[in-house]
């Protein structure tokens, strides 16, 4: 039985290095069950690196990752996916010659042994993300915003309890972004905890329950969106004078 007061994810003193480059340092963070957490910070701050560590694409050089009370630090990505950690990639990774539906079916086989059940689950995920009408076209024909939706559908069909969204709203028009915001709210309403990386403050801040700012691989600030945007350290490092004035 899971204790609902227990954080769904606990990162303790996470370090990641690439040669001499320190991409994550001393990252200690609890993610609460059911929240939408915004992970923000300038390019190169270490956000995608942290997602890779949480999802199990890579292992940290130091530190501990506990998911739902279980130490997953040394588990590989497929095993973490089976436990309920889902993710999208900043650069969409679709099989372009396969249909949109089959791209999602591939993910559905993580939960369903039979083709018919996998297909039904994939169709559900496409309907949920508003891509049902594109199921039969090849993934290579999708527009960039549709590709990001496909990423989300493929992650959702793995039935995550924690979903990592890496810049799924980058490059969207304001009306597409509104649909994206609405989609993320519906994902949370399904009981899925969301950590999202997003650059556009106007999108992130109204949507998230809490924000964490990474800078040079370290947590610079965390709190409610209001607390974070007023934090002098954040203003100095990231937001700049235009936001202070606002
Ligand atoms: P963000 O997602 O916040 O923009 P990243 O996590 O992608 O930042 O990158 C953090 C830093 O680590 C950057 O300086 C980047 O160049 C470096 N980095 C990321 N992945 C690798 C890798 N596989 N090999 C070497 N350096 C990397
Ligand atoms: Mg990134």
Distance between the termini: 46 Å
Helix % is 25-40%
From the spread of the alpha carbons, the general shape counts as: globular
Beta-strand proportion? 15-25%
Order of H and E elements: EEEHEEHEHHHEHEHEEHH
Strand order of the largest sheet: 6-7-8-3-9-10
Largest sheet: 6 strands, mixed
Low-confidence spans: pLDDT under 50, at least 5 residues?
none
Catalogue the ligands: adenosine-5'-diphosphate, magnesium ion
Number of helices: 9
Number of strands: 10
Oligomer: single chain
Look at the helices and sheets and give the structural class.
alpha/beta
Average pLDDT figure: 93
SSE layout and pairing:
Elements lengths: L8 E10 L2 E11 L4 E5 L6 H9 L6 E6 L2 E2 L5 H7 L1 E3 L12 H9 L6 H14 L15 H13 L5 E5 L7 H16 L3 E5 L3 H7 L2 E6 L2 E6 L1 H6 L1 H14 L1
Parallel strand pairs: 3-8, 3-9, 6-7, 7-8
Antiparallel strand pairs: 1-2, 1-4, 4-5, 9-10
Helix pairs in contact: 3-4, 3-5, 4-5
The structure holds adenosine-5'-diphosphate and magnesium ion.
The site of adenosine-5'-diphosphate has 11 residues, from strand 2 and helix 1.
């Amino acid at each position: 039985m899971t204790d609902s007061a227990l954080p769904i994810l606990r990162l303790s003193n996470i370090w990641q290095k690439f040669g001499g480059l320190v991409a994550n340092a001393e990252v200690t963070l609890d993610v609460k069950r059911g929240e939408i957490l915004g992970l923000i910070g300038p390019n190169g701050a270490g956000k995608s690196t942290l997602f890779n560590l949480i999802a199990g694409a890579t292992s940290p050089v130091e530190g501990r990752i506990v998911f739902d009370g279980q130490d997953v630090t040394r588990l590989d990505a497929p095993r973490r996916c089976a436990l309920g950690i889902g993710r999208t990639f900043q650069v969409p990774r679709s099989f372009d010659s396969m249909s949109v539906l089959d791209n999602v079916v591939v993910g559905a086989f993580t939960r369903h042994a039979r083709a018919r059940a996998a297909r039904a689950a994939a169709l559900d995920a496409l309907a949920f993300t508003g891509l049902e009408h594109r199921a039969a076209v090849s993934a290579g024909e999708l527009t960039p915003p549709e590709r990001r939706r496909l990423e989300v559908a493929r992650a959702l069909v793995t039935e995550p309890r924690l979903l990592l969204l890496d810049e799924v709203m980058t490059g969207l028009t304001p009306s597409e972004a509104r649909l994206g915001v609405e989609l993320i709210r519906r994902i949370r309403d399904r009981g899925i905890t969301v950590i999202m990386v997003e650059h556009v403050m106007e999108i992130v801040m109204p949507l998230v329950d809490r924000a964490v700012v990474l800078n040079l691989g370290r947590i610079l600030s965390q709190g409610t969106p209001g607390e974070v945007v007023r934090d002098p350290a954040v203003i100095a490092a990231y937001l700049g004078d235009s936001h202070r004035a606002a």
